[in-house]
UniProtKB/TrEMBL annotation, chain B:
<dbReference type="Pfam" id="PF23544">
    <property type="entry name" value="AtuA_ferredoxin"/>
</dbReference>
<dbReference type="InterPro" id="IPR056362">
    <property type="entry name" value="AtuA-like_ferredoxin_dom"/>
</dbReference>
<protein>
    <recommendedName>
        <fullName>AtuA-like ferredoxin-fold domain-containing protein</fullName>
    </recommendedName>
</protein>
<feature type="domain" description="AtuA-like ferredoxin-fold">
    <location>
        <begin position="1"/>
        <end position="99"/>
    </location>
</feature>
């Protein structure tokens, strides 16, 4: 039975770089996939592109490609990534420049775009899922709207001989599914196979989260060598058989339990995992350890895909201001509480216009509110005040009112910090599939 | 005893919705966890954090439950004022739930 090995080189845009190098050098892989595009990243990239038309791709694209491209070229490994973000063409041009500069010889690079539907959405009655309002009512604050594109254009690019594929918004699992469809000639409506190939993508798309990252619980779930965490490899056969593993000798661990945690990550109904390619069904999934760090996946299937594509909508949502300051030693908790009361009153007295405010004591209640029983008196607490405002000017005032606690607040307050930033928030919508037309462009080095 | 003693957990986020898996270490504890850790108990456990509906999915082949909690992330990771805007820490908070010891 023919099989391919697919490596996952990143689980998010800022992820470690050398595990991907290790995969390319020692992983014996055919494809290396980098998932680097969180929901909000593309809205931020859209702003970068507006300021400079040659930008708008992932800020780490150059560093990642310089690290892996020579090895991938030598070992015949194809690269698929959504590092194109808001500007796949510019990202592809940058990859060509790197290939030329490093003297890597012939390289075919595909840029896949067409996911940007912001102009269409501005005049559309399509409802925003979270609010029920028509998208057109948000036209003045919309920053970005990108449809999650499926595997099809990537399959086409592979068929046309692409060595590197740079995309904008595509569904994360689709990047892993595309090489399986291409290599095995699966029909794109063979829902069972497409469901299986999508499970591979879902397990791998967060990089180290399936090899022991985001998992360790000292004493209960120990993971060796997280500082050298190995990123995952899927071994997929033509008939849809799947084994999840990692580079031999790398840090981390692949077990039935790491796989169980990751298959349910960001999943709602496990029977109905919607992607642009399929409605995947993980409800009967099984994981079996066939050797150390080799987990066989079974029981996955799929049903027909839906007629709509999910669209991620980015919009300007005001400004967020924040201030923090620490208190320690006997009475730290009481001084921290006093500090919060003072800031609360100051924001009122000085008339800071905030739409929402939040007052936390880090070390006491900033994460779990009152869910957990109160801890014994902490030896240090950190006051944190945040608020959302309509203008940067107002947002800045929140941090200022925390900072002035230095000379106006409780005893021994130290280490004050403050910040304010613009908020680009995300909503979602469903858009008719036939209104999103992927575009493939090829560049050759 | 606590849920922490017999199960592990992971949080994921989609917009303002948080999902938390609860996975038993040993399959023999699954039925017990399934009976006790109901959506109602989870909703009550997260009072003050989760404002919306809690729905539970069962995945017996994994010895797992998956809780999907609406309106749980202060408007969603991109606009929440919370320190842990993703709600990544919620999984650990759920494992703090007390569960009756076995008869």
């Amino acid at each position: 039975m023919r099989f391919i090995r697919i490596g996952s080189g990143a689980g998010y845009s800022g992820d470690r770089i050398e595990p991907a190098v290790e995969l390319a050098e020692k992983g014996n892989i055919n494809y290396l996939v980098f998932e680097c595009l969180a929901e909000r990243t593309i809205a931020i990239a859209q702003n970068a592109k507006l300021n400079d038309p040659t930008k708008g791709y992932d800020p780490l694209l150059t560093e990642r490609f310089e690290a892996v491209l020579p090895i991938c070229k030598k070992n015949g490994i194809k690269i698929i990534t959504n590092m194109g973000a808001a500007n796949p063409q510019a990202g592809a041009a940058k990859v060509r420049e790197i290939a030329t500069r490093l003297g890597l010889g012939k390289l075919k690079i595909a840029a896949i775009s067409g996911d940007d539907v912001v102009e269409a959405l501005k005049v559309s009655d399509t409802k925003i899922l979270e609010t029920g309002a028509p998208a057109s009512s948000m036209a003045s604050v919309l920053v970005s709207a990108n449809a999650y594109v499926g595997a099809a254009p990537m399959v086409e690019a592979l068929a046309n001989g692409a060595d590197v594929i740079i995309t904008g918004r595509v569904a994360d699992p689709s990047m892993f599914l595309a090489p399986q469809i291409h290599e095995f000639g699966w029909s794109q409506d063979d829902w069972d196979k497409i469901g299986k190939g999508t499970a591979v993508g879902h397990l791998l798309e967060c990089g180290g989260q399936v090899t022991g990252g985001y998992y360790a619980e000292p004493g209960k779930k120990d993971v060796a060598d997280l500082a050298r965490l190995g990123f995952p490899i899927a071994e997929v056969s033509e008939d849809g058989a799947i084994v999840i593993t990692k580079v031999e000798g790398s840090g981390g661990t692949v077990t039935e339990h790491t796989c169980k945690e990751q298959i349910l990550y960001e999943v709602h109904d496990p029977k109905t995992y919607l992607t642009p390619d399929v409605t995947a069904d993980f409800s009967q999934i099984t994981f079996t350890e066939i050797a150390p760090n080799r987990i066989q996946v079974g029981g996955v299937t799929g049903r027909a895909r839906t007629d709509t594509l999910k669209v991620s909508v980015g919009y300007n949502d005001g400004y967020m201001g924040e201030g923090q300051i620490s208190y320690a030693g006997p009475g730290a908790l009481a001084r921290g509480q006093l500090a919060l009361e003072i800031v609360k009153e100051r924001l009122k007295i000085t008339g800071v216009k905030a739409n929402e405010l939040r007052f936390d004591l880090i070390g006491v209640n900033s994460i779990h509110a009152d869910v957990l029983a109160p801890a014994p008196e902490p030896t240090e607490v950190r006051v944190r005040v945040t608020g959302r405002c309509d203008s940067m000017k107002e947002a800045v005032r929140i941090g200022n009112e925390v900072e002035t606690l230095y000379t106006n607040g409780p005893a021994s307050g130290g280490g004050a910090t403050k910040s304010a930033k613009q908020v680009v928030a995300m909503l979602s919508a469903l858009f008719p599939r036939d209104k999103v037309v992927p575009v493939i462009e090829y560049l050759e080095a | 005893m606590k849920l922490f003693d017999i199960a592990h957990s992971r949080t994921g986020d989609k917009g303002n919705i948080s999902n938390i898996s609860v996975i038993v270490y040993d399959q023999k504890d699954y039925e017990r966890v399934r009976e006790y850790v109901t959506p109602e108990r989870v909703k009550a456990h997260f009072k003050g954090i989760v404002n919306g509906e809690v729905v539970r999915y069962e995945i017996p082949t994994l010895g797992a439950l998956n809780f999907v909690m609406q309106d749980a992330l202060g408007g969603g990771v991109t606009r929440s004022l919370a320190l842990d805007a993703h709600g990544k820490c919620l999984a650990s908070a759920l494992l703090a739930m007390d569960i009756p010891a076995k008869n």
